[in-house]
Amino acid sequence: MDIVATIISKEVKSKGFPSTPVSYFGAVFSTLKRMSREELDQTTLEALFTFLSSLLPALPPAVLRSEGEEIGVVAKRFVDVEGVSNGIINAVLKCVSCVLVGGEKGKWDKVDDLFRFLLRFVIDKREKVRMQAHSCLRDVLQSFNGTPVFSSASEEVVVLFLKFLSVAGGSSCTNNVDPQGPRGVWEVIFLLNALKDCLPLMSTKSRFKILKYMKSLLLLQQPIVTKAIVGILHSLCLSGTTDVPGETILDMLCFLASSATNKESSADSMSSIAHLLLSGIKKIYVANRSICDMKLPEVFSTLGEILACKHEEAIFASLGAFKGLIHTCICKSLIDEEVDGVIRFIPTSSKRICEILEGLLGYRYSDVWDLSFQIISAIFDRLGKASYQLMSGAIKSLANLEKLSDENLLFRKQLHGCIGSAIIAIGPELFLQIVPLNLESNDMSDTNCWLLPILKQHVIGAELSFFKNTILGIAYRLQQRSQELERDGLIVSARATRGIVYSLWSLLPSFCNYPCDTARSFKDLHKELCDTFRKEADFRGLICSSLRILIQQNNKALLENSEASDEMEDHEQKPWNTYTPEVAKDNLNILRSFTKGSSQNIVSILSEFFLDSSNDSGKCLQSAISEYASIMDKKDVKKIFQKMIRQLLNETKNAVLIQERSSNDMEIDGLDRNALAALSMKRAQLLDLALCFLPGLSTEEMDFLLKHCITPGMKDNEGIIQKKAYKTLSTILKDHQDFLLSKVDEIRVLMLDSLPFCHLSAKRYRLDSLYFLIAYFSKGSSVHSKEDIISPFLTEIILALKEDNKKTRNRAYTLLVDIGHVCSDKEHGGKKESLLQFFNMVAGCLALDKSNMISATVKGLARLAYEFSDLINAAYSLLPSAFLLIQRKDRQICKANLGLLKVLVAKSQTDSLHMHLNDIVQGLLKWQDDTKNHFKAKVKLLFEMLVKKCGMDAVKEVMPEQHMKLLTNIRKITERKEKKYQSQKDTRSLHSRTSSRGSKWNHTNIFSDDGETNIQSRALTKVSSLRSKKTHKLSKRLPGDLFNQTEDDPLDLLDGQRTRAVLESSIHRKRKVESDDDEEPEINDEGRLVISEGGKKIKREKNCFSEDDLDTKSNSGRSVRSITKSQKKKQKLESGWAFTGSEYTSKKAKGDLKRKNKLEPYAYWPLDRKLLNRREDSKAIARKGMSAVMKVTKSFEGKSASSALGVKFKRVKYQNKRKTKKHKS
C-alpha cells in the first residue's frame, strides 16, 4: 500500500493537482476504472481499494453522492471475479460502507443496490469476510438511524432473515460446522451473529418481528442457536433502546431460566444466562414493571439453582445478578404493599422471593454460605423495617447457624456481618424480639451472649428508651445476681456475670450513635447515667464516650451546609439524613439543660471526679468536659471557670508558702515535701481542667488565664506545672487565632522571658507554642521580619534536636522543617532565597565552640537538606567545614557529619555527586580505620551507597591504591546479594530495590551509633513496635474482659487469656523441674560418688567469665561476642534434640539396663546441622560422620549408648582435626 500511495502521489504532483483527498481519489478511482479483469493483480488491486477506503471518509458528501453509484459498479466488477482474495473483498466492503454512511440517504432506490450488495457477505462462509461485513452493516445501520431509508434498510434485513429461516424450515443444526449440512441453517446462524450488534440499531417494527421468530428458535434447544440468541438479547438489554417488546423478551428470559440448570448446561452458558437475567429484568422493569413482578420469583429461583452449581464463574455471576435485581426490583411501594399481604397471609410475589432467599441458608448451599450471607444482607438493606415480617425466618436461621462448630461453619465472620445487617435494617428492639438474648437463663447453652459484640458494632439510629428500659433492666438484674453469687462464695460465676453486665453497658455508645429519640428519652436516661457514674468506676469511660458521641454528632448536624460525607457508609447515611438542623438544635437544648443546677449537673459531676481521680484513663473525662463546654451557655461556663481559678490560685498560694518556709529553714522536711508534691498534682489537674473549658471561654477569660495561671506556671520550679502551662498555651494558640492576634507581642516576650526556666519535660509543648507563634509571624501580618522572630528561638530549636525524649526530638525536627516550608511558601510571600537564608542562619550556629551545639546544628542541616532538594548545593558548600570538624575526633560531631554525608549521597543526583566524589572519598578515608568508635562500618556503608549511585568505576578512579581492598569486598558482597535475590526468583537488581529518594525521614537510620544496615534497624523497629502494640492492647483491655483472680481462687476456664497464662507458667515450672532432675550425681570409674565443692556454683562458673577473663580473652584475639556465641551453640547442642541415653547406663557393669516405668533403652544420634549447609565441603564432613555410625557398631557391643556416643563424638572430632591440619599443611 505504501508503494501505491507513493506512485499516486507522484502522479498527482506531475499533473499539477493539489495534494487533497479529492485529487488522490480521482487518481485512484480513474486507475480502477481503466483496469480490466484480464489485468487483475491481486496485490495491486488490494492496495488500491485499501487506499481508496482510507480516502473516502475524508471526501465531501457531495462527491460521495455523485460518485457513489459508479464506486458500486467498479466494486462489483472486481468482486464477482472468481478466485478473488479475502483482502480485496474486505477493502471493497469498507469502500461500500463509506459510500453508504456518507452518501445519499434521501431515497431508498439510491442506496438499495449497495445495501443488498453488503448484505450478500453477511452470510458468507469465509469468516474474515463475514466479520468485516458484520462490522460494516453495524456502521451503516447506525448512520441510517433517523433518515428516510432507515425503515427500508431494517426491513431488508428482516426479509433476508425470514428467507433463510424458511429455507432452513424445521431443520436442526449441530454443534460442529458442516459445509454439507442442511441448506439455510448456517445462513440463519450467521445472521444471528450479525444481529447481536445490529438488532438494537434497527427499527422497532423490524426488531419486534425478528424477536418473535427468535422465540420460536429457542424451542429447538440447540446450543449454538441458544448461545447466539442469548448474545443478541444481552446486547439489546444493555443498549440504550427503550422501545422493546417486554412480554416477548420476558417469555424468552423465563424459557432460558428454566433450561439454565440442565445437566447439559456448561459453566459458560449458566454465566451468560445469569448476566442476561440481570440486564433483561432491569430493562423490562423500567419499561413495564407490572409484568415483571410476577416473574421475579421464577428468576430468583433460577439464580439460586445456579448458585448451587460447582462452577465458580457461574456462582459469582449469580451473586452479581442477585444483588443487582434486589437493588432494582425491590422498591418501596412493593415493600409497603407486600407487608399488608403478609399480615393477611396472601402468597404474594415478594413473600415468595423472601422464601427463596431464605432457602439460600440451607445446607445445600454450605459451600457458598459466604455468598449467601451477602445476598441476605442486600435484601435486609433493601427491605428495611419490613424485614421484621418478611425475613423473620431467615433471621432465626442465621441464629441457628451460629450454634454450628467452627468445622461446620467456615464463614463465621461473614455470618456476623449478615446478622449485623439485619440489626441495622430492623433495629435492635425488633431483632431481639426474634432472637432474644436470654441472658437471665440458668442454662448457659440457651443464652445468646454472642449477640452482644454484634450489637455493639451494628446498632445505629436506635432508641435510647429501649436501652434504658430493656438493656439496663437486664443489666440491673444480672448485677443483683452477681452480688448474690458473690455472697454464696461462687466467685467465678459472679465475675462472669459481672462481665456480662459490663458488655451490656458497653452497648451505650452504640445506642448513642444517631439515636432517634434523644429529645424525648435523654431526660429519663440522664438520671441513670449520673447514678451509675458515681457508683461504678468501670462504666465511667463508657458514659463519657457516649456523651461525647452525642454532642459531636449533633454539633456536626447543626451546621447548615453539612451533608453526608463520602466516607460515610450506606447504613450511616439514613440516620444522618434525619438529623436536620432543627432536630439537632432540640437535642442540644436537652443536653444543655442538664448543665444547670447542682444535683444533676453532669459537668459538675465530671469535674468532681476528674479532680478526685489520679489517672484519667484515655482522657475520656477531659474530652467529655470539653464537648460539654462547647455547647454550654457562656454564663454557666464563666461561673464554673471562676470557681476553678479561685481554687487554682489558692493552691498556688499554699505551694508558695511552703516553698518560702522551706527556703527559710534551708531544707525541706518529709511532710513539706509530700505536701508540696500533692499541691503540684492538684495544680496540674486544675490546669488540665481549665484546658477542658477552653471551647466555652471568652477572650477576657482566656486573657485572665494567660496572666494569672499560664505565665506563673511557665516559670514555676515544678516541671509538671510548666508542662501543663505550655500545653494550655499551645492549645490556645492553635484553636483561637483571634486571641493570638490580640496578644501576639505579649506572648512573644513571654516566650523569651520563660526560656531560662524551661524544664525538660515541658520542652515538647514549648516547641508546639513556638511553632504557632512563628507561623503567625511568618504569614507577613506583623511588622517584625522573619529573621527577627526566628533568630531568638533558633538556638533553642537546634539544641532540642539532641533531646533524649523521642517526642521532643521529633517535634524539634518537625518545627525546623515547618519553618522551612513557611519560608518557601509563595502564597505568604516566601521564596527560595528566604529558604536559603534560613539555611544559612542554621549553619551560622557552627561557629559556636560546644560540641553538643555543633553536632545538633549538623543534624538540623541534614534534616533540611533531606526535606528540600533546593538546599543540596548549599549543603555541599559545607563539606570542607564538615571534614575539618571530623578532624576534631569528637564522637558526637563525627557521627552527625557522617549522617550529613549519608543524606547528601542519598538525595543527590548522580551528576552533582560525581562533581564532589573526590572530596567525599578523601574525607571519608580519614575515618576508615577507626574501629574504636564503630565509624569503620559507617564509612563502609557510605562507600556502598557511593558505588550504587556512581558506579564502581567512578569510585575506583578517586580511590587510593591502598584502600582498593575495601571496594573489592563491597563488590563481592553486592554480587552475593544479587545471587541471593536471583535464587528467590526475583530478577530485579539490587540497585532498584534500594531507593532512598522517596523514603521518609528516620533519625535512627541516619545518625545510628553503629554501621548496621537499614534493614536490620527496620527489623528491630518492627519487632519493638509489635511488642509495644501487644503491650498497648493489654493495657487497653476493658475491665470486664479480665477479672483479677488470686492464687486461692479457682481458675476461670472461660477466661482464655488467664488459662493460657497458667498453662505457660506450668510448662516453665515443668521444664525447670526436669532440668533439675537431669543433674545426676557424678560417679568415677571405680563406682564412687564424686562431690564437687560449691555445688551448682561450680557449674555456673564454668559458663561465665570474670571481667579479667573477658579482657584476656579479647586481647588474645577472640572477642567476648564470639565466646558467648560458642557457649550458646554448645548449650544448644547439649540440651537440644540429642538424647544419649545416660539414664539407662549401668553403674556396676557395661551395657544398658531397663528402668522401671520407663521405655526400653534407646538413644538419639544427634544430627549434624552442617547437613543443611549450602557448601558441599561442610555437607561432606557431616555425611562422613553419619556414614561412620554403622561401621563402628561392632566396637560398641557391650557398651552403653551414652558411652558409645561419647566415644564416637571424640573420634569424629579427632579425625576432623587431623584432616584440617593435613589440608593446611
Automatic annotation (TrEMBL):
The keyword DNA-binding does not apply. This is Ribosomal RNA-processing protein 12. Residues 977-1008, 1023-1051, 1107-1135 are annotated as: Disordered. GO terms for cellular component: nucleolus. It comes from Zostera marina (Eelgrass). Keywords: Coiled coil. Residues 310-607 form the RRP12 HEAT domain. One of its GO terms (molecular function) is RNA binding. Residues 1027-1036 have a biased composition (Basic residues). Residues 4-244 form the RRP12 N-terminal HEAT domain. The keyword Coiled coil applies. Residues 992-1008, 1113-1125 have a biased composition (Polar residues). InterPro entries: ARM-type_fold, HEAT_RRP12, HEAT_RRP12_N. Residues 977-989 have a biased composition (Basic and acidic residues). It holds the Pfam family HEAT_RRP12_N. Residues 547-574 form a coiled coil.
